[in-house]
UniProtKB/TrEMBL annotation:
Name of this chain's protein: Small-conductance mechanosensitive channel
MF-aspect GO terms: mechanosensitive monoatomic ion channel activity
Cellular component, GO annotation: plasma membrane
Role, per record: Mechanosensitive channel that participates in the regulation of osmotic pressure changes within the cell, opening in response to stretch forces in the membrane lipid bilayer, without the need for other proteins. Contributes to normal resistance to hypoosmotic shock. Forms an ion channel of 1.0 nanosiemens conductance with a slight preference for anions.
Length: 259
C-alpha cells in the first residue's frame, strides 16, 4: 500500500511535466494541420509537388516530437544541452533521404479504406501488412490476399480519384423517336442531384442494327455516390421510358411461332 502511494505521489509530481508536453504536442500538431490545409488550397497534395509537401510537413511533425521529448528530458533533469541542434539536423537529413528514396521503394497503389479490385476480389481495404492484404468484400466476407500476389496482379483503385463515371447502355426501337430517347436520357441524368454538371452528361448513338438503335449515356458522380446513383438512374430511366409514348426500350424478347 505504501509503495502504491509513493508511485501515485511520484506520478502526481510529473503532472505539470505531462501537461506541458501534451500542450506542445497538441498545439504543434494542430498548427501543422491548419498550415497543411492552407497550403493544400493552393498546391494540390496529389499534384506535381505532392511528395515535397508530404515530406515537408512530415519533417515538421517529427520536429514537434523532438521538441516535446527535449522539454520532457530537461524537466526531469537529463542533460540536453547542445542536443537540440543535432536532433533537428538528424530530422532534416532523414527528410531529405526520404524525399529522394521514396520514389524508388516498391509500394502498393492503395491505402486503408480504399475500394479496390484485385483480380476477382472487390471490396474495401481493411489491413495492409508485409505478408498480406485484407479486403472486406461487399457481401461481408474477409479475404486475405498474399502481398506478393497483390504486387503481381492488376489492381483497380476506385478511390484514387474523387469522381467516377456512370455508363448506361440502352437500346430503343429504330423506328421510334431517337432524339426523344436522347432527351429522356439527358433529362434523367440532369434531374439527379448527385450527377455533376462538369463534365456534363452526354448521350451518343453507337449504331443501328435491324430494329434496334443502340445508345450510350455518360455522367460523372462523386466516388462515394456511384452505386446509389447508378441504381437511381436506372429506376428513373425505366419509369421515364414507360411513361413516354414516343419511344420504347427495345428489351430482349422471345417470339414463339405455332403451326
Amino acid at each position: 500500500m505504501n509503495e502504491m502511494k509513493a508511485l501515485v505521489g511520484q506520478l502526481a509530481g510529473y503532472g505539470q511535466l505531462i501537461a506541458s508536453v501534451l500542450v506542445v504536442l497538441f498545439g504543434g500538431m494542430v498548427a501543422v494541420v491548419v498550415l497543411y490545409r492552407l497550403v493544400s488550397r493552393f498546391v494540390k497534395p496529389g499534384g506535381k509537388y505532392g511528395r515535397a509537401i508530404k515530406v515537408f510537413f512530415g519533417a515538421i511533425y517529427a520536429m514537434v516530437l523532438v521538441i516535446a521529448v527535449l522539454i520532457a528530458a530537461q524537466r526531469i533533469g537529463l542533460p540536453v544541452q547542445g542536443l537540440a541542434g543535432p536532433a533537428i539536423l538528424i530530422v532534416m537529413v532523414i527528410s531529405v533521404v526520404v524525399f529522394f528514396l521514396v520514389p524508388f521503394l516498391p509500394r502498393l497503389p492503395f491505402v486503408l479504406g480504399d475500394m479496390v479490385q484485385i483480380r476477382d476480389v472487390t471490396g474495401i481495404v481493411d489491413a495492409i501488412t508485409a505478408y498480406q492484404v485484407v479486403v472486406r468484400s461487399f457481401d461481408g466476407q474477409t479475404i486475405f490476399i498474399p502481398t506478393a500476389l497483390v504486387m503481381a496482379s492488376p489492381i483497380r483503385n476506385f478511390s484514387a480519384v474523387p469522381h467516377r463515371r456512370i455508363q448506361m447502355d440502352v437500346d430503343v426501337y429504330a423506328e421510334d423517336d431517337i432524339e426523344r430517347a436522347r432527351s429522356l436520357l439527358l433529362e434523367t441524368m440532369d434531374l439527379n442531384a448527385n450527377v455533376l454538371a462538369e463534365p456534363a452528361p452526354a448521350v451518343f448513338v453507337t449504331g443501328v442494327t435491324g430494329e434496334r438503335a443502340s445508345m450510350v449515356a455518360f455522367c460523372w458522380v462523386a466516388n462515394e455516390d456511384w452505386f446509389g446513383t447508378r441504381d437511381a438512374l436506372w429506376v428513373a430511366l425505366s419509369s421515364a421510358f414507360a411513361d413516354d409514348d414516343k419511344v420504347r426500350l427495345a428489351l430482349p424478347r422471345l417470339d414463339i411461332a405455332t403451326s
